[in-house]
Amino acid sequence: MTFNIDEIRAQFPILSREINGKPLAYLDNAASAQKPRAVIDAMTHQMSHSFANVHRGLHTMANETTEEFEGARAKVAKLLGAPDASNIVFTKGASEALNLAAYGLAGEIEAGDEIILTQMEHHSNIVPWHFLRERYGAVIKFIPVTERGELDMDAYKAMLGPKTKIVSVVYMSNVLGTVNPVKEIGKWAHGAGATFIVDGTQAVVHRRVDVVDIDADLFCMTGHKLYGPTGIGALYGKAEILDRMQPFNGGGEMIEDVYETHVTYNDAPHKFEAGTPPILQAIGLGAAIDWLSQYDSGAIHQHEMAVYHHALDGLRDIDGFELIGDAPEKGAVLAFNLKGAHAHDVAQILDKYGVAVRAGQHCTQPLMEARGIHSTARASFGIYNTLDEADRLVHAVKKAATFLS
Ligand SMILES: Cc1ncc(COP(=O)(O)O)c(C=O)c1O
């Protein structure tokens, strides 16, 4: 399908909203993206046409719903380049996927074992590893981030050693926008005998990913940033890694047999999906993947970066504007500060002009500390954003700079 921005925007009912008497310019896509009619309709259709619990019924609607649910798993597998749908565990988001990864591998961690993360991780890829530090004595090391927002690869290579058990890194930073060289990072991790985990939450929205090519052992994503619903995400895992991992939640569906004396588990991915799964959310995610896949990922990237650069060119002229993150390989995330102004005040003024951005630490406190800043404002662009919205961002930031100086 050709990339026609008006045709794309027309598919998002919410984009015609006004905020404070101004047309909405939604630039908070890294936090959560809006939903196209195709996703809304797929979920509504399922609820109004064919709905039942999955896997356990013998009646028609149970089978139909199971087919849609398992079909969504296959769509996630295809999106990520996974060899098979059985490599995909549904979770309620990226955070749960990373918690599952940490919990699942915890049985292999001994005191003194090392886990390597980066300073630009989201808290979702830090806190689960702190659990392993607190409970099993693991040691966490952080790859430093340079001034421009790139990983210090020499420091990383120097950290690797016989105690390295896990290397878990973000593919695309939700603050700096940096796209990390995950393939190279993974090669070095595997060379040290470590399990290699990738937080693909932002990357999967903005570029074509291939978990086999980057040789990730585990890879996580979330649905609501990919124009899908909340409450659904996925953990991809190589079959041998998923077999090795201990289950996280116990209950129905994740078992093979349950006795008074012991229990045996179902195969992956079901071993990790206790109870009734997020059926409608998974079907909504499947619809989002179908919807997004009709557009060329290269064309989406080009469009988003054109909007990003247009905004940046205008913002650079504003006195006191500071861009946070200027890596040569980056996606359309524009974190910034205005000298002397608090990011929250900037975001509140922008809202008066209908421009929605996020402000704060973006769940990356170690990154903020490493850069010696408290917070940032952040405009993050998606498939439906326009050059006009970039102009409106610049206009509103100019006003904020005037009011707050
Ligand atoms: C890089 C990254 N990882 C993980 C997450 C967590 O995603 P979720 O809140 O959907 O679990 C986010 C959300 O902002 C993110 O940007």
Brief overview, please?
The chain has 405 residues and is an alpha/beta fold. The protein is built from 14 helices and 17 strands. Helix content is 39%, strand content 17%.
How would you characterize this protein structure?
This protein has 405 residues and is α/β, with parallel strands linked by helices. The chain has two domains: 136 residues, Aspartate Aminotransferase, domain 1 (Alpha-Beta Complex); 254 residues, Type I PLP-dependent aspartate aminotransferase-like (Major domain) (Aspartate Aminotransferase, domain 2). The protein is built from 14 helices and 17 strands. A hairpin with a 4-residue loop joins strand 11 and strand 12. Helix 3 crosses helix 10 and helix 11 packs parallel to helix 14. The relative contact order is 0.17. Pyridoxal-5'-phosphate binds next to helix 4. The site of pyridoxal-5'-phosphate has 12 residues, from helix 4.
Keywords:
405 residues; alpha/beta; Aspartate Aminotransferase, domain 1; Aspartate Aminotransferase, domain 2; seven-stranded mixed beta sheet; four-stranded antiparallel beta sheet; 39% helix; binds pyridoxal-5'-phosphate
Compile the SSE list and pairings.
Layout: H1 5-9, E1 18-19, E2 22-23, E3 25-26, H2 37-49, H3 60-80, E4 88-91, H4 94-105, E5 114-118, H5 127-136, E6 139-143, H6 153-159, E7 164-170, H7 182-191, E8 195-199, H8 203-206, E9 218-222, E10 233-237, H9 239-244, E11 255-258, E12 263-265, H10 279-293, H11 297-315, E13 321-324, E14 333-338, H12 343-352, E15 355-356, E16 358-360, H13 365-371, E17 376-380, H14 387-404
Parallel strand pairs: 3-15, 5-6, 5-7, 7-8, 8-9
Antiparallel strand pairs: 1-2, 4-10, 9-10, 11-12, 13-14, 14-17, 16-17
Helix pairs in contact: 2-10, 3-10, 4-5, 11-14, 12-14
Bound molecules: pyridoxal-5'-phosphate.
